[in-house]
Structures are given as C-alpha cells and as structure tokens.
Amino acid sequence: MPRNEEDDAENDRVEEMIQDVEEILVHQPEVLENLVDDSKKPLYYGCNVQFTRLSTTLKLCKLKVKNGWSDKSFTEMLKLLTEMLPAKNELPTSTYEAKKILCLMGMNCGACRYKRDGNNSSTNDKMPPVKVLRYLPIVERFIRLFANSNDAKLVRWHVEGRKSDGMLRHPADSPQWRTIDGKFPEFGGEVRNLRLGLCADGMNPYRSLSSTHRTWPVLLMIYNLPPWLCMKRKYIMLILLIPGPKEAGNNIDVYLQPLIEDLKLLWDQGEKMYDAYSQTYFNLRAMIFCTLSDFPGYGNLSGYTIKGAKACPICEDATIDLRLKNCKKIIIGTLLNIPGKTKDGMKARLDLQELVVRAELAPQQSGKHAYLPPACYTLSRKEKISLCECLSSVKVPSGYSSNPKNLISMKDLKLLGLKSHDCHVLMQHLLPVAIRGILPRHVRVVITKLCFFFNAICSKVIDPLTLDKLQVDIIVTLCEFKMYFLHSFFDIMVHLVTHLVKEIKICGPLYVRQMYPFERFLCILKAYVRNRRHPEASIVKGYSVEETIEFCTDYLASTDPVRIPRSRHEGRLDGQGIVGHKMITPSAEMLDRAHLFVLQHMI
Q1: Dihedral sign from CA coordinates of 285, 289, 294, 300
Q2: CB–CB of 537/544 below 8 Å?
Q3: Bridge-partner residues for 112, per DSSP?
Q4: 566-576 pLDDT per residue, tens
Q5: How far apart are CA 547 and CA 459, in angstroms?
Q6: pLDDT tens for residues 479-494?
Q7: Helix intervals (H) in 408-507
Q8: Phi, psi of 310 (to 5 degrees)
C-alpha cells in the first residue's frame, strides 16, 4: 500500500508495524498482546506520545547496533538515562531487558546437533562426536520480508521496474532466468517467487592470524531485488553457521540438510505468505538460482576436485595440463618481484631449461651463486619506485577501496595487505595507468588488454553482442601472456578466466555474482564476536538483534537504516554554492595540458 513519505518523516508508524508483525505472531497471542502494551505505554507520565516504551527502546537499540556499542556500555547508558528521567519511568535498565522487548519481534534460531554416524560414509571420521549447527529458518525471514510493504514492493522490481532493452543489467535479463520461466511456467508466472543466490565461505572469527579456527557462514541473497540493493548488507541473509574449529570440507552437505529441507518445501509445496504491499495472501515458492564462492569453496559445495591435472570443472578431462617438476604445481607480485608472491624464481627458470624454451632466461652459474637474467617484464629499481609512487599518489572516493597509500611500502617497494576487492580495483583501473612508460611496449599492451577485459566484464551494463569479441580477445591475450611470461604463471586460476564470458552469457552480469560484498559481510560478522569461547553463538546473537532492529527502523520517523550505507556527501551539497561566482580563464598551455590528461585516461 502506498506510503506518505511526509508523514513518515514526522511520525513513528508503530501501529502499522504492530499490524504487520501481527501476521508473524498470529499463533502467539500473548506475545502480540505484550507488544501492543509496550507500544501504548508512555515512557513516563506526561511524556510526548511519540516516546513509548517500545519506540524508545527501538531507537536506543538502533544506536547501539549502528555504532557497535558493547552490552556493558549500553547497560551503563540505560542506567544513567533511567536516573535522568522522571521517577517510575518505563525505560529498560539493562541490555538484557531491552532485548527481551525486541525478542517479541525476533526470529527463532534453531540449534541443530549432528552426531557422527559410523555407518554413514559421507561423514568424516575426524568430525567431533557432537557439533552444534546454528540454523536460522528461512521461512520466518521471508514472512518478515513480505510483512514490510516497502520490501514486498521491491521484490516485484525485476518485472515492474527493470528496463528491458536487450542489454544485460540484471540476472532477469539472462537466458537462465528465461529458461526457468519457460520450463516451470507456474513458478515464473508469480513475480513474487524468489530466486536466490547461495554463498558459502570460511572465515577466522577471531581476526588473528595465529588462530586456525574456521567458521563457515552460509548466506542467501535475493535476485528479485534491484541490482543496487540485492548485494547490500540489509538483504544478505545469514542462514547457517557451521562451527569450527575445522573447515566443513566435503561434509558440508551434511550441515546443509536443514536448509535443503526448507528449500525443498518451498519448491514443492510453497508457503502461504501475506503480502503487505498488495494486502493479499499468496503461495510463495523459492529456488536457488546460482551459488557464489571462491574456487576452494566451489570444490566443497560441488564435490568436484579442484586440484591436480583436471582441476577445471568446465573442461574436465579436456583440460590441457603440464606438470612443472620444480615449481610443483600474480601479476603485481611478479612485476615487483615480491618474495613469496612472484611466479619468477630459480625453480621457474629451471623448468624452462627442462622444457628447452626461452634459453636466454636460463640461470647462469657464477661460482657458488646463480644469476637470473632479467626478463622482459623485470623492473629496475627506478621503475619499481615509479610504479609504487604512482599507486601511492592515487586518491579514491570514500568507500571505493582501501587507501592505496596505506598499501604501498616505499621502503621495501612492495604492496602489503591487499584485500581481494583492492586487487579488483588495481587490475581494473589503477594498473594500466601505473605501468605507462616503465615496461616494453609489447608487455605493457598485453597487461593493459587483460585489465580492460576485467573492466568490460564487470560493467553494470553489458551488450550481449560484444561478448563473442571479448571471448576471442581474452584467448588471444592469454596466448600473448604465454609469449612473455613464464610457464609457472599459468595456473588453474588463469585458465578459468577463459570461461568468464560463457558464464555471463548464461547467468547475466558478473558484478551481482562477485564475492566482494560477501567478504565485507564476513568482516561484519566477526565484529559480533564478544565471547571468544563461543564465537558462533555470539555471531548469531548479534546478527539476530541487528536484523530485528533493521526491520523496525523502517517504521520509525527520521531514522537512517542500519544496513544500507548512507553517502558521506548526502545533504552536504544542498544550498547555493559560491564557487561558480568566480570566473577562471585558463591559459592556452593549461588548457592543452588538461585536454591531454583527459585523452590519456580515455585510452
């Protein structure tokens, strides 16, 4: 039902929230009654009607979640506020009491215990006798999603708001989406049926490199939503938390059983759901549209062996492999010759000797020392300084990536602490600029072509007619790489690049299936760990409270959502500026330099 935004900005819509959660708590009348009482109980005698026990608690808890306050600090603040307010006020005096109020709208967290079964060959003998699996039921999450009229409207976006002009902007533009609609017309005929992405990845909850503890969160995202929202923190759902201290490995299917059972139910029978936007009931069905993971995680989810000669899951037996005896088996690391990260070294050169290729690069023995002749991609110290200075001088928008200056060590001339998203930004945008003029032209061109390829496939709008050309270009580019770089550079990860275009043709744009948003989300989950003895329980507890707060925030007046970031420049550009009142006439020389700068960055 349409909402009046002016009224939302002035008044809390607590009554509307009670009506929406009434559908969730229909089988718990006593809980609903307590919730209604708290929504009508003033904070203290004579208080403004907008400040009830429920609304005040929600607003305070929202500040706690948004700013990461500890339970202890929040309890101390509540005690201070209680003393400041008039006597006999209704403000909760502790974090525990405040959470009891929110639990009325919270979700149930199922803790499943899996025992080792000696007769089941799918379980690992090293698995502990008892493991507690934290499962957050997905049906309750979807009930809450459709109980919010704004979210219920957004779920229809892929049909009602998507621009259809033949370009690939959303997974709904992909052949796989259309194939599902054609093969299952009953499922595709209901626009509110959900198509989900499933992501699984491991993390260290303690944020310590000395700890080997691995916890595996399993996440869901909804592809029905607009592309600028489906990867946001608010709409990434934590479903499973597979406990450590060891990785789930190939036994991950055992832990996924609760989720699989719910997904089968939603596919075969569906679930009766109330749509707050249309104010009607319908039968919700859902399916897994695709899975998202890094390559090791893909091996666990699919059960495919990702190591060895036939590691490519697409080529399989047709994979062409060559075993390098000495290397036994990434560009910046190779260019800067970073120890431990370069693919060029004595072993790589010895492999060239055994293959009888590139004889000019063979190691030369001089007494007890061996000399490695420089390759065409080898940078001198002066060139390394130029590359590092260029990267460290780059300034990026807030939230775009890490500050490049903090990633460069001018003393050691190497890069430190790059996250996967930083490597993504480096390859797409920064590296082609940084290597200009410091490498032979043929090497510089082939590296730039690879960077342009990644930039093209990660675009938010892709023309399907250009995909065949991109496929040809990347194959030629990798062949050129093999002319200039060593064999040790070409591992399975380089080979998989050749299949990215085919993946886009089938599933749609790549930027809505990348791991970067989920890796950032894992950092948020780590911040929930307050009890180091029970990290998984801490994560589930913190996440559940935050999700409840986020649901309620939509009904509160003039409050920002917790899980959708707000631009730091929002509201700062209002009013009339004074910059335009001063006319600046550049000289002809400055104008030519500006034009040259623009043209160079368009190449």
Answers
A1: positive
A2: no
A3: 133
A4: 666 666 666 66
A5: 31
A6: 888 888 876 777 778 8
A7: 420-425, 431-434, 441-457, 467-484, 492-496, 500-507
A8: -110, 50
Longest dimension (CA), the chain: 93
Q: Where do we find the tokens 């001018």?
A: 410
Q: Which residue's structure tokens are 């759902």?
A: 237
The 8 Å CB, 24+ separation contacts for 249-257 are 249/124, 249/300, 250/124, 250/300, 250/303, 251/122, 251/123, 251/124, 251/127, 252/200, 252/216, 252/300, 252/301, 253/122, 253/303, 254/114, 254/122, 254/123, 255/114, 255/133, 255/216, 256/218
The string of DSSP codes covering 151-218 is HHHHTTHHHHT---SSSB-SGGGSHHHHHHHHH-HHHHH-TTSEEEEEEE--B-TT--TT----BEEE
Residue 499 token pair: 């299949």
| pLDDT given at position 28 | 67
pLDDT band (50, 70, 90) for residue 127: very low
Asked if residue 14 lies in contact with residue 55, where contact means CB atoms within 8 angstroms, the answer is yes
Judge contact between 451 and 427, C-beta under 8 A. Answer: yes
Distance CA 483, CA 445 (A): 13
Specify the DSSP element, H or E, that contains 239.
strand 237-242
Which candidate, 550, 546, 560, places its Cα nearest to that of 148?
Answer: 550
Task: Identify the sign of the CA torsion 426, 430, 432, 435.
Answer: negative
Task: Tell me the per-residue pLDDT of 355-410, one tens digit each, with 9 for 90 and over.
Answer: 667 777 777 777 777 777 777 778 888 888 888 888 888 888 777 888 888 888 88
* Helix (H) or strand (E) segment spanning residue 364: strand 364-366
- Residue 290, token pair as written in the block: 């695709």
Question: Tokens 């201070």 appear where?
Answer: 80
Per-chain mean pLDDT for the chain: 79
Tokens describing residue 232: 């946001």
Which H helix or E strand runs over 132? strand 130-135
Q: How far is CA 431 from CA 138, 157, 314, 419, 435, in A?
A: 42, 37, 30, 16, 6
Give, for 145, the enclosing helix (H) or strand (E): helix 138-147
Rounded to whole angstroms, how far apart are CA atoms 503 and 21? Answer: 41
> Is residue 112 within a helix (H) or strand (E), and if so which, with residue range?
strand 110-115
In 3D, which of 330, 332, 348 has the Cα closest to residue 413? Answer: 332
Secondary structure letter of residue 379 according to DSSP? P
Give the pair of three-digit tokens for residue 123: 């379980």
Task: Give the separation between CA 532 and CA 528, rounded to whole angstroms.
Answer: 10
Helix (H, G, I), strand (E, B) or coil at 262: helix
Tell me the two tokens of residue 493. Answer: 């990860």
Strand-pairing partners, residue 191, are none
Q: What is the per-residue pLDDT across 205-231, written as a single tens digit (0 to 9) for each?
A: 887 767 788 888 899 999 999 988 888
Per-domain residue ranges of the chain: 25-102, 110-309+530-553, 324-379
Would you put residue 544 in left (φ > 0), alpha (ψ -120 to 50) or beta? Answer: alpha
- pLDDT value for 469: 92
Dihedral sign, CA of 43, 47, 50, 56?
negative
How far apart, in whole angstroms, are the C-alpha atoms of residue 482 and residue 466?
25
**DSSP states of 380-405:** PHHHHHHHHHHHHT----TTTSS-GG
142-151, 161-170, 487-496, 579-588: least confidently modelled range:
579-588
